[in-house]
Amino acid sequence: MVGVRGSSIAGYKLRHYPSGRVTQFVGSVCGGEWDQLLLRAASWQNDSALVSACQLACSSLTGLAMQRPRNRQGFTLVEVMVVVVIIGVLGTLAAYGVRKYIGSARASEAAAVLNSIRGAEEVYHQDTFQYLDVSQGTFDNLHPSVPPGAFKRNWAGDGDHPPTTHNFRQLGVEVAGPVSFSYGVVAGRAGDAFPVMPTQKTAAQFNFPAAAAGDFYVALAKADFNGDGKFSYVVTHSLTQELYSENDGQ
After folding, report:
1. Per-domain residue ranges for the chain?
2. In this predicted model, what pLDDT tens digit does every residue of 33-44 receive, in sequence order?
């Protein structure tokens, strides 16, 4: 079905894949091993539906190859349709991989900024013996004040809640360039109530006591990537080194 020319095109389209995967892809195409090519690609994404689709395409292609006389020229409609299915499967894999890459980049930003907030709060606590309540007791006060959607917002100049913006500057947290999330920090002293979390799921994850036993802070990142009103959250606090995320990619 696919000769040298087809192999060169496939290799060109896979130029930006990691080198190990390019070798596997090109090797499979040049050897005519389409079944191994598609199943290997699907297994990288751990997607059972794509694996099933690949198996169906491979079985159809193998059957056609066995039935086709060697001296016949051209392609039948069914053969062309099988090729279209294969291209569709590969396109789905590529789109899925791009979405995962974008989501990973956004999560990396949130982790980096929240870790900066963590470090800045600890330094502030050493100097003042308390954590800075950047958001003044509620996660309604974020910076930037409007959570970014499909497009990033500038960290500098987009905060229309002056106290929160000023407090982040006082804490020493600055981001050079636009951000995908809005950020907030609520802090308190021993005996204070922990802040109200944005969702019941997040509240259940941390299960804060009614009153804090000591000084604390809770830092949150919030975004609405799809603009559908369903927010993504990344949260951490002074009692843990872990980051909790909810509704990734939303």
Report:
1. 4-74, 106-246
2. 545 555 555 454
